[in-house]
Design goal:
With 81 residues, the chain is mainly alpha-helical. It has helices at residues 2-24, 31-48, 52-78. The protein folds into 2 domains: 1-49, no CATH class; 50-81. The longest helix is centred in the last third of the chain and has 27 residues, at 52-78. The termini are far apart.
Length: 81
């Protein structure tokens, strides 16, 4: 047991240096920081991309508009009211 503690004392400056280096590089992350970053990513994705529901709704509206334009075009060609 005494050998282990002597070894630990001998290498403790190096261990401390490595831990401080890891802390400076922010290798270790707290759950709060991780949750905050997660919320930021979700917010950015929400602002940048459209949801499937919104895209599906827009596609339906576009197809309805196309159908109405086709009807108007047919009225002009046939001369109907």
């Amino acid at each position: 047991m005494l050998e282990n503690s002597d070894l630990l004392i001998q290498y403790s400056p190096i261990i401390m240096l490595v831990l401080v280096y890891f802390l400076q590089l922010k290798i270790f992350v707290t759950p709060e920081v991780l949750e905050k970053k997660h919320r930021e990513i979700l917010q950015e994705a929400e602002n940048r991309f459209a949801s499937r529901v919104a895209v599906h709704g827009i596609k339906e509206q576009m197809s309805e508009i196309k159908e109405k334009i086709d009807k108007i075009y047919n009225c002009f060609l046939t001369g109907e009211k």
